[in-house]
Structures are given as C-alpha cells and as structure tokens.
TrEMBL record:
Top-level taxon of the source organism: Eukaryota
Keywords carried by this UniProt record: Coiled coil
Alphabetical list of InterPro entries matching this protein: CRAL-TRIO_dom (IPR001251), CRAL-TRIO_dom_sf (IPR036865)
Protein name: CRAL-TRIO domain-containing protein
Domain CRAL-TRIO as annotated: residue spans: 4-149
Residue ranges that the Swiss-Prot or TrEMBL entry lists as coiled coil: 261-288
C-alpha cells in the first residue's frame, strides 16, 4: 500500500471509510462523485483496494454513491470500479437517486439492464436511515459521524511505517530497537482505544506481526545462544588451558628476597582478579546452559556435561590460583621477617665490632653500652623467632596445598633459608657472648677500682675517727680500758680494710692484663699505701699516748697505795711506841715527796700535750686536764695528810720525854731512779715498793719519771 500516491485523493475525499456500518454490520464505504473528473479509473480502483485492505479480508462493504450531480455514464464508471476493486466484498450499493424523475428512471433501467452482481438500491437522501443509522452516517449525508481525512491518512501512513519497520527487523535482526518497540506498543494501544474497525484491524495486524517477529527472534535466539554458548565455552577453555595455565605456571616459584616476594604477590593479585572474571564467566555460561537445556531439550545432555565441565575446570583453576596466592603471601611475610632479622643482626654486629678505646671507661658508660648490646641481642632473637615462625607457617602452607603445588621443592627451599638463619643467629649470639664477657670484665674492673677507692676512703675515715672519737676525754681506768678495747677493734678493722684494698688491687691488675686495658692500679696502690701509713702512724701515736695515760694512771694508783701504806705504817708505829719523830720513815717519805713532784710534772706535761691536740673538742680537753689535775691533787692531799701525822707527833714529843722508838724502813727503789733503755722505747723499772705491789696485786707498770724524758 502506497498511501503517498493516493494522498491527494484521500484528502479530497474521493473515496473514504468514515468508520460507520449499516444496520447489518457491513462497513460503510463512501465514494464521492464530485472529484471523478480528476481521477482515472486505475487510481480509483487502486484507492478502493487500499481502503478495503485496511479492514479484515472477511469484511463486507456497503458502498454509498451520490448520483445527484452525475450522469449515467459516470455512475457506470463508479460501479465498475467498485465491482473490480471490491469484487465479492461488496454487499450492496446504496445509490442516492437524482432529484429529477427522468434521471431516476434512466438509472433504474440501466441497473436492470447491466445486471450488476452486487445488490444495488436506488434511494433518496431522507430514506438512508432505513439502511444506516444516523450516527453511522457522515455529516455530508445528514449523519453525525465525523471524519478527518488528514488524521486518518496520517494514521494510515504511520501504520505503514511500523509495518515496514517490522518487515525490516524480520529481515535484519540488527535493526531491532527497544525504544522503537516501546513506541510501537504505545501506538498500538492508541489504535485500540479509537474503537474504529480499521484501527482495530491495524492494531491486530501489527500485534500479529510483532508476535511472529518475537517467535522468529526466539527461534533465532536459541540457535544463536547455542552458537554463542559453544563459542564462549571454547574461548573459556582455551584461555584456561593456554594463557591462564602459562601465567599460573610462571608464578609458581619461591622468592628469595622481599622485592621478589612483593612482585609475586602483586602478580598473583592480578591473576586473582582475572580468575574472578573467569569464575563469573563460568557462572554465566552455566546459566546460559541451564536456560538452553529448558529451551532445547534435544541438546540438554550435551549442555549438562558442558556445564559440569566448565564448573569443574573453573573451580580447579581458582583453587590453584588461591593456593599459589596463599603461599606467595606467606612467603612474602617470611621474607619480610628474614629482612628484619638481618637488619637487627647487622645492628647488633656493628655494635659488637665497634672498636673500643684502650683506656678504661666509666662504669656508667660501660653499663649503658652493655644494656644497649643486651637490647640489640634481645631484639635480634625476637626477630629470629618471628622469622622462624613465619618460615614454619610458609612450610605449612606448601604442605596444605601439596596436591596443586610442588610442595617438596618449596619446603626444601624454605628449609635451607631457615638453616641459614639458625647458623647466622648462633654465630651472632656467640660474638655477643664474647662481647658481653669483655664488657663484664670491664665493669668488674671498674667496680674493683671503685671498691679500692672506697677502701682508701675507709682508711681515711678510720684515721679521722681515730682522731675524733679515740682521744682521751676521761682520765679514768674504766674509760681508758674501754678506749683500748675499742681501739683494738679499730686496729683490726684498719688491718682488714688494708688487706681488702691490697686484694682489690691484685684483682684489678689481673683484670687489666686479661682485658689489655691501661688502668690506674699503680696510682691507687700508692694512695692505699699512703693512707695506710698515715693511719698506722696515727694508731702508733694514739697507742703511745694511751700507754702514757695508762702509766700515769698506774703510777697514780701505786703512789696512792704507797702513801696509804706509809700512813698505815706510821699509825702502826704510833700505836706500838706511842710516838713518832721526823726521822721516822724519812727516807721513804723523802722519796715519796720526790715522786709526787715528778708525778705533778708528768701530769703537767701530759696536760700540755692534751691541750695541744686540737683533734678533740675544747670541752673534752679541759675535762681531761681537770681530771689529771684532780688525780695529782688527790696524791698530794694524801701525802699532806700523812705528813701531818709526823708533825703532830713532833709537837707532842717536844713536851714529853721518852725514847724514840727505832723503826727500820722498808727499802724501796726510788721511782725517779728508773733507767732508760736504749732505742727510745719505754721499759720502766719500778722501785721495790712498786714491784711488791705488782707482785701482790698485779698492777700494770707505772711511768718513768726521768726529768729529761718525753712522756708521749
């Protein structure tokens, strides 16, 4: 149908389908007689044929002809064209008769003579409602049915366009456009909404074409899907068995350092991403196979086997990729731990191999250095343990995927690396142990130096203690005895400290030799000897002073005993003879007076020396001097008391007459006649009376009373 050629005739309403029907349901076809002069017979037949094709083939037509303004020949022209174009589809022809009676008779006669196959009815205008309802008649025949030729033609042209589109898609499936299909569906819906016969027929025709096209597309799509599925399976298997297998095998290796391990991990990540695409492709192929099995039962068995093969191959390849990826990641972690261990071991080795100076360092610096080395060794050992654990994990990974990996080769490679790490760690620990021993020797040497310095300091403190706390503050036998006992303890402490210092110096000397360090043992030895000499001299001086005080105390005690003895002798003689004179015991009394004078001089000298010793406090010195003076005064008081007996008797004897009783005094060696021994040491020789006292009572020796002797 070429509506473009008939466009003007349709617009001029030469013939048209208003959309109405007669009372019998036949489609109404109106042929206008006003345009007959401008239309040829062929065009009229073609137009009528086009109009009839817009309705279903079973449709019968009622043709409406207006002959009020035409001649009989023109009526024959129309009837012949309608009979040729519509043939058996024309149910009847309603001819609106002319107004003139003669014209009516001519037409009626002609219809009878010609014998048209279709029923022809000559009818006036006002009787059309007998055959056609008013609402089905066009307005030009007194009806109410509207008709717009422009809209009707546009609709026919669009219908033709969609028919051509469906024909093209049927011929070439690549021209199929989903947007066009949607527009076509909307157009068909509009046609159905008009409820016009020709529109409903066009809509049904288009729907039928669409269904046929979809059926054909489905049939073609099944064949295309099978071909596409076969090609996809082939490409899938070719990639896995070809490029994928080569790629996977090229990555099946053990990296020996961190850089290689990182490179392998990155390549495995790329392969993993590709594997995910392959798995997705396998799922798509399996899904297509499932649909094809339902759509094409004749190839269901083959498709099922293909689907299972695709799944098995994809899963096995994915498992191999995962196994190699897991091993590569584990090996990367192992190599990182190995690198960390090597870094820590190099730092420790650098610390161990650092050259030390020959001089002895301070103990704080040695302790800090030793602590740093210990930290480095601990850090190295921790890194070693981490590396060993990572290596064991890598070995476990290789054995876990032994069915898809060369596990024995991988395990042997990792084991050699672990063996190398173990040997390296042992060597470094041995070097660290040697360095630690050397540092310990240095620390011991410095500790010995400090202990030696402390011993020297103790000797000095003992000397200060001797001067400060072992001076005479009480001139008393108990205090002197306690002082001597304490001094003996101090002497033992001093000797022990000195011997301890000598032992420390010997140890320091041996440590210097073993560590080949330049030390200061000789200097400390000199300091120790000097401190000991000073302390020993102070002890000797203290001992001499203590002996002098002891001698003074012993002499004081002996002289008090002599005075008391002489006084007892005088009283005994006085009791026996009843009188005393100046010659009685004169020798003993004279010696006693001389010894008392010597004791007084000795006490004064001792007081002078005590007062000159400023190591003690002034109060202690004054207290000691006062006690010495009190003891001398005590002896002199006792002597005066004894002499007073003689004086009283002489005064009484001058008035009495009696013969003086003779008394032979006991001989005793004067205390002042004690000789000096050669060599300057004190070795006192006592008078007979003193020796008797010593024999009888065990008294300690007294001091000598030579005039030119130093008592300290």
């Amino acid at each position: 149908m070429n509506w473009q050629k008939q466009r003007q005739h349709v617009l001029d309403r030469l013939a048209f389908l208003p959309g109405g029907t007669d009372r019998e349901g036949n489609a109404l076809l109106v042929v206008s007689t006003s345009q007959v002069q401008e239309c040829s017979y062929e065009n009229l037949v073609s137009l009528l044929a086009l109009l009839s094709d817009t309705l279903p083939p079973s449709t019968l037509f009622t043709v409406l002809l207006d002959t009020r303004h035409i001649h009989l020949k023109q009526l024959k022209f129309y009837l012949r064209a309608c009979q040729q174009a519509l043939y058996k589809k024309m149910r009847q022809v309603l001819i609106i008769q002319p107004e003139k009676f003669l014209e009516q008779q001519k037409i009626n006669f002609d219809l009878i003579v010609c014998g048209y196959t279709s029923k022809t009815v000559l009818i006036s205008m006002h009787k059309l409602s007998k055959f056609v309802d008013v609402n089905q008649l066009p307005e030009q025949f007194g009806g109410t049915l509207g008709y717009d030729p422009d809209a009707w033609l546009s609709k026919r042209i669009e219908i033709k366009k969609w028919q051509n589109y469906l024909a093209e898609v049927d011929t070439d499936g690549s021209r199929h456009n989903p947007d066009e299909d949607q527009t076509l569906d909307e157009f068909v819906s509009k046609l159905q909404a008009t409820k016009l016969v020709e529109d409903e027929y066009a809509a049904k025709s288009l729907k039928k074409s669409i269904r046929e096209l979809k059926a054909k597309e489905e049939e073609n799509s099944k064949e295309g899907l099978i071909k596409d599925h076969t090609a996809g399976v082939s490409d899938f298997l070719d990639w896995i068995e070809g490029s994928g297998e080569k790629w996977l095998n090229s990555l099946c290796q053990v990296a020996d350092n961190v850089d290689e391990a990182e490179g392998l991990v990155k390549q495995h990540e790329e392969l993993t991403n590709k594997t995910k695409e392959i798995e997705e492709q396998s799922h798509q192929l399996a899904e297509i196979a499932t649909r094809l099995m339902a759509a094409c039962p004749q190839v269901a068995i083959v498709l099922q086997k293909t689907r299972e093969q695709i799944r098995d191959v994809a899963e096995h390849f994915s498992y191999r990729v995962e196994a190699q990826t897991q091993f590569a990641v584990s090996n990367k972690n192992f190599r990182e731990k190995v690198g960390e261990f090597i870094k820590k071991s190099d730092q420790m080795l650098e610390k161990v191999c650092a050259e030390d100076e020959k001089t002895v360092k301070p103990i704080e610096e040695l302790t800090s250095t030793k602590k740093e080395l210990d930290e480095l060794v601990n850090s190295m050992n921790v890194a070693y343990e981490s590396a060993m654990d990572a290596g064991e994990d890598t070995v476990a990974k290789a054995r876990q995927y032994a069915e898809v990996l060369p596990a024995e080769e991988f395990v042997a490679h990792i084991a050699s690396s672990l063996n190398y790490l173990s040997q390296k760690q042992n060597r470094h620990n041995e070097l660290a142990s040697v360095k630690r021993l050397e540092q310990q020797q240095h620390i011991q040497l410095m500790t010995t130096y400090e202990d030696c310095d402390q011993a020297i300091k103790w000797l000095g403190e003992l000397k200060e203690t001797l001067h400060r706390e072992y001076s005479l503050s009480d001139i008393d036998e108990g205090a002197v005895r306690n002082l001597r006992n304490d001094r003996q303890d101090l002497d033992k402490t001093a000797i022990s400290t000195y011997q301890y210092g000598k032992q420390l110096l010997s140890m320091a000397k041996n440590s210097e030799r073993s560590s080949m360090k330049e030390g200061s043992t000789e200097e400390r030895k000199e300091k120790l000897e000097a401190a000991w000499k000073e302390l020993d001299l102070a002890i000797q001086n203290n001992e001499q002073r203590l002996k002098v005080v002891e001698s003074f105390m012993a002499t004081h005690r002996q002289m008090m005993e002599r005075v008391n003895e002489i006084e007892r002798s005088l009283r005994e003689r006085l009791r026996v003879s009843g009188k005393l004179n100046s010659i009685t015991l004169s020798t003993e009394r004279k010696r006693l007076r001389h010894d008392v004078d010597e004791l007084s001089k000795c006490g004064n000298l001792l007081s002078t020396q005590i007062n000159a010793d400023h190591t003690t406090t002034a109060q202690d010195r004054q207290n000691a001097i006062k006690q010495i003076s009190d003891k001398i005064d005590e002896v002199m008081t006792a002597q005066r008391r004894m002499e007073s007996l003689i004086g009283e008797e002489e005064e009484a004897g001058s008035s009495s007459s009696g013969k003086e009783e003779k008394h032979t005094p006991r001989k005793s060696r004067p205390l002042s006649k004690v000789p000096e021994e050669e060599g300057g040491d004190l070795s006192p020789v006592f008078p007979r009376a003193v020796r008797l006292l010593e024999t009888n009572e065990g008294i300690a020796p007294a001091i000598r009373l030579s005039k030119n002797e130093s008592y300290l």
